[in-house]
Design brief:
Helix content is 65%, strand content 0%. The model has no long low-confidence stretch (mean pLDDT 80). It is globular, with a radius of gyration of 29 Å. The protein is an all-alpha fold. Helix 2 packs across helix 12, helix 3 runs antiparallel to helix 9 and helix 7 crosses helix 8.
Length: 294
């Protein structure tokens, strides 16, 4: 006769879930690299911090040994707008924006054509574009001034736009050429099959994919034109036509320097560039790495 075995008693102790694995500590190398990165970032940001704190110091406390001002003079930032430099800020914006637009209008077709066509002299053309980066505006000031003087463009915003566009064009062509070359031709050929022409494929397929490269060329051209000083000092004489980088010299006198207002103007001149770069920083990183990974 078969004997039924009694069912096993339910275990009084439920199986405990395994504890989550302890979070792995970062490696020593990772910690050192991160610490070094923070140190380098602090070294680069420290002058801006000093500039900001100095712009908020009263006139009689500029020589104080304390790092932070004993009193905060916020009116120094407000005095910038009453000093008449707001018009120079507008001139700087016009020069930077005009130079950027002109560079993109010329660099986009040049980079696209050189990336998609293996024409005779293509390598020589790209090398010639790169060679133009070796010439500094300072070494060509006399020739630049004489040329614009003959065309009647001295003391004009257009002269600054043309010069800044010319000296930033080579960088934009190289960045965009690398990005266009990294985009497969098959995507454009598929667009041709769908009924798009050359310009349709360019504006609907290629340019949206190349947007990080376009933004990289845009931001670098804009910043270079925004910060340019030597050519603007040479080509402009009327205070109203001078960009902010040149107009800030009005705070530097023969016997005295108005440091707090000079630094206040510098802080205000830096803020637009910081905001612009912060908004499109991810696109800039993608554009700089274009063509590095196939």
């Amino acid at each position: 006769m078969a004997v039924k075995t009694a069912p096993r008693a339910a275990s009084h102790h439920r199986a405990r879930p395994r504890p989550a694995s302890a979070r792995r500590l970062p490696k020593v190398k990772t910690v050192l690299v991160a610490g070094l990165a923070y140190v380098v970032a602090f070294i680069f940001l420290f002058p801006y911090l000093v500039m900001l704190l100095t712009s908020l110091r009263p006139q009689d406390s500029l020589r104080d040994a304390t790092f932070f001002p004993s009193e905060w003079e916020w009116s120094n930032l407000a005095n910038f707008w009453s000093s008449g430099l707001a018009g120079n800020l507008v001139v700087t914006l016009q020069v930077a924006a005009g130079s950027t637009v002109l560079v993109l209008l010329v660099a986009l077709p040049a980079a696209y054509y050189s990336a998609r066509h293996n024409f005779r002299g293509r390598t020589a053309f790209l090398i010639l574009v790169l060679i133009t980066q070796m010439f500094q505006p300072t070494a060509m000031l006399v020739g630049i001034y004489r040329e614009f003087f003959q065309f009647g463009l001295v003391d004009s915003i257009w002269s600054l736009i043309l010069v800044n566009a010319g000296f930033n064009l080579a960088f934009a062509v190289w960045i965009l050429n690398a990005y266009f070359a990294s985009i497969p031709r098959e995507l454009e050929e598929a667009a041709f099959i769908d009924g798009n022409g050359r310009f349709g494929a360019l504006f609907r397929i290629t340019l949206p994919l190349a947007l990080p490269g376009v933004i990289t060329a845009l931001i670098f051209t804009f910043i270079a034109a925004w910060n340019e000083f030597v050519v603007a000092l040479t080509l402009t004489t009327t205070p109203a036509n001078q960009p902010l980088t040149v107009a800030l010299n009005s705070f530097i006198g023969q016997y005295q320097v108005d440091w707090q207002n000079l630094f206040a103007g510098s802080v205000i001149a830096t803020i637009p560039v910081i905001i612009l770069f912060a908004l499109i920083e991810r696109k800039v990183v993608g554009g700089l790495t274009a063509g590095s990974i196939k």
